[in-house]
Amino acid sequence: MTTPSVTIGANDRSVRRVGVDVGGLVFAGALLFALLFSLAILAVLIWSQLAQALPVFAERGVDFLTSDLSSNPANAGVAQGLIGTALLVLIVALAAFPIGIMTAIYLEEYSGDNAFARFVDINIRNLAGVPSVVYGILGLTVFVALFASVGDGNGKTVISGGLTLAVLILPLVIITSAEAIRAVPDSLREAGFGLGASRWQVVRGLILPAAAPGILTGMVLSLSRAIGETAPLILVGAVLGSFSTGGSLEDLLTGPFTALPTIIFDWARKPQQEFQALTSAAIIVLLVVTVVTNAFAILLRNRYDRSW
Amino acid sequence: MTSTITGRSPLWVPDDGHESSPTATPTPVEAAVPAVIRLQDVSLYYGDFRAVNGITFDVPTHQITSIIGPSGSGKSTLLRSINRMNDLISGTRVEGKIMYHDEDLYASYVDPVEVRRRIGMVFQKPNPFPKSIYDNVAFGPRLNGFKGDLDGLVEASLRRAAIWNEVKDKLKQSGLSLSGGQQQRLCIARAIATDPEVILMDEPCSALDPRATLQIEQLMAEIKERYTIVIVTHNMQQAARASDKTIFLNMADDHAGYVVEQGPTVQIFTDPKQQLTEDYVSGRFG
């Protein structure tokens, strides 16, 4: 019995590799390059700020975080910005999340697929794209004027700022929550209805728990956006420069306020060299706050994560 | 006359003196057999499209009724209309009457939620909730505000669904961690837990292997003493093995389903009155 010989090309059922997939390799390489490029930009940004900020932290340490604003760079700190940003996050969360999530539930589970629902959907998406400075003007004409007429202040309070930011991120909360709810498979709803559950029981007992990870992720994204917004806060009257308030909660809520992004904006404009370093230090503080907020929300989401 | 397949006397015998019509309406004598659900000239529409046309049949109490027929004959649509699941799809419309204990299920005063508590459903693809096995079974009773011994109810339901021994040590584990056949039995336990009168099954075994299928069929035979079962199936052998009464649906030229023949399973499979029925059960089409 002779052994059959196998030569490339002579037998077209051969499974030998023929040549190298050049196109595939080039494509994979281009993808990798794009990734590294994005990371590189991020690294350059962070590094350039860190390089300027580290001397400030080395020299002043915690004092930088606990000092108030001042025209003297040696004394200036971000304490009021931290408080302001913290209050803003609280107000934004309380104002935007319940309304946004309830709107999403209504749009996805209760309203039919009619012209009105589609109209609302399109408008919400448009609102998500409106420039934030426009929301600032809205905040000025509505919230600031409202609080000015009601109280005895000028209305330029952290509450006005918080409500303005809440309106700004509301479309984002609605869209991300709606998508999380839509991603819940219909088989779950069918099973729930099949057992004789009412629509509310299906939403509360089945859909919301299943959509929770996605909704929480949406909340993280929205909060991150709100923390970094500057233009609306400036328009609503965040203080640029320095100010002082009494320490009570009422003073904080009804008096002048500022936030980390506005402090950064203000210091970046100042001519003194020392304020440039302080600007970088404030940027690092803002990045840390953002990362901590994200990490907390991601932890929360992972607790509720489900595998299908 | 005893059936060779099931060994029992059929409870519904066609009147030999009459020529069978395509809708085989039961004669007055047979109407005395208790039927928990009666369909009278039911037509179902998706918008303008008529999915089934002029359906009339009874679902005898404590029996297994199977609905067979080729794809597109409207079997699932028909089944889902019995527990008003089609309400969830917009644009659906019902003509005719679906009677549950002498009440029209589509009367304006009827609450679909209450209907579904009394007429449960098991779906084609097992769909346990992403919750623990215990919470899956307890979901229905908790909906109704059940205050008694929930542990006992969950155990009883799992026992009746012939799955208790396999899950009794892992009630806290996710329902999704079970195999396909186990998941389907869990879904049956879940449906049983609300103590319905009727259980509708929409091709419950089509996603399962033969061994799991046989377990489900045995389960159906055991539980029909307590419930009434209506099963839609593509699998004729299953209908022949497992059901007492069979309804054969076919798709007409206008794509609407209609009843070709109905009767005791034995008779449909061994001595069908319509040529179309004979062709279908012997596999010549479908």
Task: Characterise this structure.
The complex is a heterodimer of chains A (308) and B (286). Chain A is flat. With 308 residues, chain A is an all-alpha fold. Chain A has a domain at 81-259: MetI-like (MetI-like fold, Orthogonal Bundle), CATH 1.10.3720. In chain A, helix 3 (79-110) runs parallel beside helix 6 and helix 4 (115-128) crosses helix 6. The model of chain A has no long low-confidence stretch (mean pLDDT 89). Chain A contains twelve helices and no strands. The relative contact order of chain B is 0.20. In chain B, strand 1 and strand 2 (49-60) form a beta hairpin. In chain B, helix 3 packs across helix 4 (150-160), helix 3 packs parallel to helix 6 (180-192) and helix 6 runs parallel beside helix 7 (210-223). Chain B is globular, with a radius of gyration of 19 Å. Chain B has one domain (30-281): 3-Layer(aba) Sandwich (Rossmann fold), CATH 3.40.50. Chain B has a six-stranded mixed beta sheet with strand order 6-7-8-3-9-10, sandwiched between helices. Chain B is α/β, with parallel strands linked by helices and 286 residues long. Classes of the chains: A mainly alpha (308), B alpha/beta (286). At the A-B interface, helix 7 and helix 8 of A face helix 2, helix 3 and helix 6 of B.
Notable features of this structure?
heterodimer; A: 308 residues; mainly alpha; MetI-like fold; 12 helices; flat; B: 286 residues; alpha/beta; Rossmann fold; six-stranded mixed beta sheet; four-stranded antiparallel beta sheet; 10 strands; disordered N terminus
Rg calculated over all Cα atoms of chain B: 19 Å
Number of helices of chain B: 10
Rounded average pLDDT of chain A: 89
Major β-sheet annotation of chain A = none
Order of helices and strands of chain B: EEEHEEHEHHHHEHEHEEHH
Provide the gyration radius of chain A in Å: 27 Å
* Number of structurally distinct domains of chain B: 1
Q: Give the termini separation of chain B.
A: 30 Å
- In terms of quaternary structure, what is this? heterodimer
CATH architecture descriptor of chain B: 3-Layer(aba) Sandwich
Kindly report the greatest chain-chain contact and the residue count on each side.
A-B, 22 and 27 residues
The CATH architecture of the domain at 81-259 in chain A: Orthogonal Bundle
What share of residues are in beta strands of chain A?
Answer: under 5%
What is the element string of chain A, with H for helices and E for strands?
HHHHHHHHHHHH
The backbone outline of chain A, from C-alpha atoms, is: flat
